[in-house]
């Protein structure tokens, strides 16, 4: 099933909280509408971060092209703007091949940057400031942020050097917290502006989602999640690395470095994942979606709804 070729370039966006089934739906839709997956996940971009990111296996990806997975090393400065520009290029290539781009993921900041919705476009770096903080400990950086912006500090783990330093850098650049600066409400030149997007939000009932989170956490640990993190640390990836601050990775790193007891590990990962899922739902709550699904999605019905959506778009000018 494919949208009519005479109509404008169009694609599908599938978002939702972690463990809601986005990847499975995205793959099913790709097979139904001749689509290609563009991952919108800030951990899937990193090589070696596989189990804890729920990275689709080679078997799951078979027959469906996947993009923006395993494109960076933990030491790379891969940020939101980089992802948005990479996604722009890849989505353009997919459309040029006559396929349907399907953006799948739960990293709301990535998606906002790509769509140009409520995103700050002038978040420059200050390399001199970063260099001046090179020898400051994680604890001292976090204390500085608490003093300057306690609200933002409360959102960032004390050992998350990357986000703490970025928050301090932006305070240094702009002289005030980022939330006090108005963001663009729309940007007609944003990377995703030339595509008509059929947007889908998956949001299972809380008890269903929590059960899925519990089951997935247990499965990840059984698959060797602890060994994966141990191997990354042994290979030189520091606890302060950006992807090592992701849910699960941070808790396991704290366990392996003696900061947390083994018997609390699984419950700590589950609790952190539930909190993250809640933040994701809040992030997407006010966005405009063609479909909001609380029950198990029907890929065939959704793909048909997408085709009907595309038929309502104005035809291309000859």
Note the main attributes of this structure.
Histone, subunit A, 6-stranded parallel β-sheet, 6 strands, 318 residues, globular, Rossmann fold, alpha/beta, 2 domains, 13 helices
Structure description:
With about 325 residues, the chain is an alpha/beta fold. The chain folds into 2 domains: about 10-120 and about 190-225 and about 280-310, Rossmann fold (3-Layer(aba) Sandwich); about 125-180, Histone, subunit A (Orthogonal Bundle). About 45% of the residues lie in helices and about 10% in strands. It has a 6-stranded parallel beta sheet, with helices on both faces. The longest helix has 20 residues, at about 265-285. The radius of gyration is 20 Å and the shape is globular. The two termini are about 25 Å apart. About 35% of the residues are buried.
What's the structural blueprint in terms of helices and strands?
Elements lengths: L9 E6 L6 H12 L1 E5 L18 H4 L4 E2 L12 H17 L3 E5 L3 H8 L11 H6 L5 H11 L1 H6 L5 H14 L21 E7 L3 H17 L2 H10 L14 H8 L8 H20 L6 E3 L5 H13 L7
Parallel strand pairs: 1-4, 1-5, 2-3, 2-4, 5-6
How would you summarize what this structure contains?
The protein has helices at 22-33, 58-61, 80-96, 108-115, 127-132, 138-148, 150-155, 161-174, 206-222, 225-234, 249-256, 265-284, 299-311; strands spanning 10-15, 35-39, 66-67, 100-104, 196-202, 291-293. It has 318 residues and is an alpha/beta fold.
